[in-house]
Every structure is written in C-alpha cells, then in structure tokens.
Specification:
206 residues; mainly alpha
C-alpha cells in the first residue's frame, strides 16, 4: 500500500488522539492489524506487530479495560497515565513517518502529542465528574464509549481520512467545551467540600 502524506498524517493524528483515550488498545489493535495482514504498517510502527509486543500490549489492554470501569480506580489510572499517554501519542505519530522524513515526523509528533493531550484531559475531566455520581452506570457507559471510539477512529484513518479530519475537529471542540464546563463544576465541588469541612472543624472546636 502506497500511502501519501495526507494519509500518513491522518494515521498519525488518529494514533495520537486515540492514545489519549486507550493507549494499550491503540498499541494492540494497530499491531494486530499489521500482524494479520489487514494493513501494511509504516516501517516505524512494525515493532507493534512483534509477538512479544502484542502479548505485552494485550495484557495491559485487558487490565485497562477493567480498571477503566471501576469508579475511582479509573481516575487514578488516568492520573498515573498522564505521563505515558501524551508522549506515547507523540512518539507513535512520529513513527508513522520515521527517521527518513524528519520534518514530517516532527510535525506529526506535535500533532499527535497535542491530540493525545486534548483527548486525555477531556477523558480524565469527564470521568472525574462522573465519579461524583453514586450510580456506576454513567461511568461504565462512558468507558464503553471510549472502547468503541478507538477502533473506529483507527479504522477511519486508513479508510476515510477526510471523515476522520471532520471527526477530530468536532472532537476537539467538544473536548474544549467539556473541560471548560466540567472543570468549573469540579472546582465548585471542591470549594463546597472544603467549606463543609471547615464548618465541621469549627463546630467541633466550639
């Protein structure tokens, strides 16, 4: 398969954005698609289809699948993976072009890292807000939505890059709105909890 620059940019963008949601799913699904011959991976991504890499990413995919559906654990998992998802998204995006196309690899790294950051922050903020609700169903529903979005976005990058571009523009707009609204909600919740704690402390001293 001969991939032109716009197609490669679409793949890089999809890898970056999806890594912000489900890094291990991106690693496993991309590697499995290459190993099964469904797609021909760019040279820089072929490490993902190595059996050892598939085994490791598959195990972590299973762990993340269940951790992401447990209220509280999901937010802790997101915090721990802040240092992994964003640089990994940038690295995967850069690997689409490889060392032979240093300029485009740098552009892809910036694109992939930025998209990974946007999806990761939106996901972490949304899940933290969902965890303030006592019922678990919204949390599980949001997790399943993420599970479905990742393979869909990866598929679009190979088959319908223009549709992917429209989706990513909309996703960025929605992410910005969610972070703005939900971060404000969480700040208000923290202030309210702090005020209640101070009031309780004053009553105990009196």
């Amino acid at each position: 398969m001969n991939l032109d620059t716009p197609q490669l940019l679409a793949i890089a963008a999809a890898l970056g954005w999806a890594s912000g949601l489900r890094l291990y799913a991106v690693l496993f699904l991309t590697g499995a698609a290459g190993a099964l011959g469904w797609i021909e991976l760019p040279h820089g991504l072929r490490l993902l289809q190595h059996p050892l890499m598939l085994g490791a990413s598959g195990v972590m995919l299973c762990v993340e699948f269940f951790a992401d559906k447990m209220p509280g654990v999901d937010s802790l998992w997101d915090v721990l993976h802040t240092v992994l998802r964003i640089p990994a998204g940038a690295a995967l995006a850069a690997a689409v072009f490889g060392a032979d196309q240093a300029t485009w690899a740098t552009i892809a790294a910036v694109l992939g890292g930025g998209l990974a950051a946007s999806s990761h922050v939106a996901k972490a903020t949304t899940r933290a807000a969902a965890n303030t609700s006592p019922e678990p169903f919204s949390n599980i529903g949001l997790s399943l939505l993420g599970d479905g979005l990742v393979p869909a976005v990866l598929w679009l990058s190979w088959t319908h890059p223009l549709v992917l571009a429209v989706f990513l523009v909309l996703a960025l707009a929605v992410s910005a709105a969610l972070v703005w609204v939900l971060a404000k909600f969480l700040r208000q919740l923290v202030r309210r909890f702090s005020a209640m704690s101070r009031g309780a402390a004053v009553r105990e001293r009196s």
